[in-house]
Each structure stands twice: as C-alpha cells, then as structure tokens.
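Input record (Table S2, row 425):
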Amino acid sequence: MTEQLIPAISREDRPRSVDAQLRRRAQTVIPGGMYGHQSAGPLPREYPQFMREGLGARVWDVDGNEYVDLMCSYGPVVLGHKHPAVEEAPRAQAQLADCQNGPGAVMVDLAELLVSTVRHADWAMFAKNGTDATTICCTIARAHTGRSRILVATGAYHGAAPWCTPRLAGVTAEDRANLGHYTFNDLASVVAAAKDAGTDLAAIVVSPFKHDAGFDQELVDPAFARGLRELCTQIGAVLILDDVRCGFRLHLGSSWEPIGVLPDLSAWSKAIANGHPLAAVLGSESFRDAAASIFVTGSFWFSAGAMAAAVATIGALRDEGAIEAMDRAGTALRAGILQQAAARGIAINYTGPAAMPYLTFAGDRNYGLANTFAAAAISRGVYLHPRHNWFVSAALTEADLAQALAATDEAFAAVHARQEGGVRT
Ligand SMILES: Cc1ncc(COP(=O)(O)O)c(C=O)c1O
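Output record (pyridoxal-5'-phosphate complex):
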C-alpha cells in the first residue's frame, strides 16, 4: 500500500506530554483516572486518553496528534465532527436560551419529525442518554402490562443502570431479579425464557443486530425478528428495539424497517443529534397512555439546544444522503481491509454492517493480535478499536479512506510480524 501517504510514526515520535500530565492529574481527582467506555486504561498504551477537537472525519488529541476517526465518539457522530448546519442550530437556539422553565417549541418540531421519519412511532419522549431511553422503555412496558419481567439477549449491552450494567459491583440481586435471558437469533431460547417468565413477562428487549463488544457481530435473521414480533403480540409482551447504537446510522427510520418488523417501543440516542446530548423513546399508539402515566424527567432533558441539533441532524441525514454515504465508505473500507488481510495470509473475521464493522483475528486469545493491530493503526494516525465495533461517518472522504487503509496495511504487517514471532509494532 501507499506507505508514503502516511509514514510509520513510532510511539516514541508521537508527543504525549499533555496527555501524560492530564492522566497524572486525573489520577488524583477522578476515580481510577477515568471510567466508563472511554477509559483508555484497557487500550494499548499508544492510545491517548484526552482529546482536543474534531473536524469532519478527523480528530486531534490534546497533544495535537491527528487521526482519521473510525470510532466517531463511539457512535454519536454520523455526519462528521462540527457539521456546519448541525452546529448552527444549537448556536441559533442559544441566542434565545437553552435550558429554561419549559421546553422550546423545537421539542414539538422534533417529535413531529421523528413521528414522520420512524414508521412505528406515533409519539416521542426525550431524555439525555441511551440508558435513560432503554430504562424508560422498560418502565412504560411495565406500566402498560402490569407485569415485571424483562428479557434481554445474553451479552447484549443496553446501558449502565443497575438493571442492565455488565459490571455487577454495587448492583443488588433485587436490581436484577426481574431480568431473564435468551440467545440472539435463537427463537427457541426466547420461547423458553418467555415460558420461564410465565404470566409476568412485560417486555423483550432486542438490538437490531448482535453487536456485543469484543465479539464477532451477527446480523439479525429476519425470521428471528418476525418470530419475536409474533411472540410478543401473542403473549401480550412489549417488543422494545434498542436502536441506541444503530439508529440513524444504518437506515433513516428504525433499523428493522428494511426487514419489515416494527417494535412497540424503541430507544434512541447516540447519532440522533450528531454528538449533542439527547435520547428519545418512540412508541406506537397503544402505549401512549402508559407513557403518559409514568414519571420520568431530568434537569437537562428538555434543553432546546440538543433538540435543535437533532432536527438539523435528521434533516442533513436525509438531504445529504448520509446513510448511503456511510454505507459506501464502509463498503470500501471493508473491501480494502479484506484485501489487505488476504494479501498477507492473515485469517480475520470482519463482521457487521459496512457502517459499523468489527475486526477480529482467528485464534486471537486475549486480543493480543487485535491490540497489536490497533496499536499500529493509532501510531499511524487511525483511531479504531480492538474490542468494540467501529463507526463510519458520512464525512469520511476518499483521502481519509486512503490514509486509513495505508495505516491498516501497516497494522496488518505488524500482526504478521507478531504471528511470525517478530516484534514489529
Ligand atoms: C445498544 C445500546 N444501548 C444502550 C446504550 C447506552 O447508551 P448511553 O451510553 O448513552 O447511556 C448503548 C451505549 O453504548 C448501546 O450501545
């Protein structure tokens, strides 16, 4: 590949002084120095912890190192960083006010836009994070059915609240008492779990495809999705689609519309406002009363700025053909990666939709090869992730793509060297 495009920069050559200072200060005033999904702790040491800015498909860390961004803030950025129309909308709203005694008119504009964009939706509610949205969906389902139990797929991530967090420190048995599990794409396992819940099954939560962090991704079997829909209708349980990670990246509507399966409730966040903080719960008519009956709120949930950003984001996604652009860029990325791995005889799995891919290496115990690959990529100016799916934005240009592929080619060389017993990073 075109090595001259992006010379290999060893980790020693990449300045890290501001990041190192911030990490030291953070250790004193932030538990663990950082926490949550953006902690660089588990990542190879070539990764920066603190970021400075972004523009289009490029991001810069606090030391000024530039990267092609294949993580997109873990999903929120779909149109690229600092998309002009999206940034203008909250700026204009801020001239009036953002956080007020009541929502701005834009709340109704956004609800109308979502109802007209997402087929199953007859109403919308708003919050801040994906966890808010999935949790509200469960609360509405319980209020609607008068039942308690919720089924989720084993290994699926639906947020960080006690009912669903993957880490059990500080979580009580009572927090999880009403949770049951099934296997994604295995309808028989859902039927068995539903039987186990008996007459107390309130809802089944499902993600559009299997995107559990650290594992090969698995697209949904349409027959599984249809089976879930039929089962829920038959037993009076609520079908909740967790579209937090996929929503507005794969399709302009809920992610199961292309396969013709409509949920009762859906949870949204991440890409809905191109990085501005907002989440939404969308629901069909039958659930309106239950949604109106529960008490959910938050000091910042009704801030007008993020809602204005969401209106602009959905408009730009539609007007700029952004979903198609992400698919095109992701398809080219996939083709390049597959070709590079094949050329070096490296066995990989590259799974998931083009705009949300994930790369694993055959027989890669403890992510050793994935870490080698990621470390080499970040050292050459491409920000991807060894244990989480990547995200492609609509801002990715051919030049960005060429630079990304030049770096991944070098990263495959590093993996090859490691497999051969060499030490190239
Ligand atoms: C599928 C899914 N559901 C829910 C969440 C929780 O969203 P948030 O981190 O905004 O609370 C996430 C976050 O990654 C997610 O990917």
